[in-house]
């Protein structure tokens, strides 16, 4: 049974603007492990990566039913990838959580489905 579904879409130019305005923006969104990956990327790929993680965390918070706020922050959610490259929610929990992230030249989007255990 499905417990929650979350979907989020964000414009890459919005993320680019936020990074230019607030250089520490990525630190508010990415965990240390995610930041290590982010720092290893080229400038264009950094925007896609950060937008994808932002969107995925928003989608997870929606599917979880809490949203981002006092009960769940961006740094409470960690997204890693399998050896094959598939992203997955690692924290706060990963069992029965399904994640998909996609990008175009203008947008990043993510969908999360959480199954009831």
UniProtKB/TrEMBL annotation:
Broadest EC class assigned to this enzyme: transferase
Catalytic activity: apo-[ACP] + CoA = holo-[ACP] + adenosine 3',5'-bisphosphate + H(+)
Record keywords: Cytoplasm, Fatty acid biosynthesis, Fatty acid metabolism, Lipid biosynthesis, Lipid metabolism, Magnesium, Metal-binding, Transferase
4'-phosphopantetheinyl transferase domain sequence ranges: 4-110
GO molecular function: holo-[acyl-carrier-protein] synthase activity
Record flagged with keyword Metal-binding: yes
Needed co-factor(s): Mg(2+)
Locations listed in the record: Cytoplasm
Record Pfam families: ACPS
Major site of localization recorded for this protein: cytoplasm
Keyword Repressor listed: no
Enzyme Commission number(s): 2.7.8.7
Binding locations of Mg(2+): 8, 58
PANTHER family membership: L-AMINOADIPATE-SEMIALDEHYDE DEHYDROGENASE-PHOSPHOPANTETHEINYL TRANSFERASE (PTHR12215:SF10), PHOSPHOPANTETHEINE TRANSFERASE (PTHR12215)
Family as reported in the entry's similarity comment: Belongs to the P-Pant transferase superfamily. AcpS family. Belongs to the P-Pant transferase superfamily. Gsp/Sfp/HetI/AcpT family.
Role according to the record: Transfers the 4'-phosphopantetheine moiety from coenzyme A to a Ser of acyl-carrier-protein.
Entry protein name: Holo-[acyl-carrier-protein] synthase
Organism phylogeny: Bacteria, Bacillati, Bacillota, Bacilli, Bacillales
Gene from which this protein is expressed: acpS
């Amino acid at each position: 049974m499905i417990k929650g579904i979350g979907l989020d879409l964000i414009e890459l130019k919005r993320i680019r603007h936020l990074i230019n305005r607030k250089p520490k923006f990525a630190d508010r969104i990415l965990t240390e492990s995610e930041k290590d990956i982010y720092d290893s990327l080229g400038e264009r790929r950094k925007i896609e990566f950060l937008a994808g993680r932002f969107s995925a965390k928003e989608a997870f918070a929606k599917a979880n039913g809490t949203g981002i706020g006092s009960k769940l922050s961006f740094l409470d959610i960690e997204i890693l990838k399998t050896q094959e490259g598939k992203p997955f929610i690692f924290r706060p929990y990963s069992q029965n959580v399904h994640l998909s992230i996609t990008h175009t030249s203008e947008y990043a989007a993510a969908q999360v489905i959480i199954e009831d255990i």
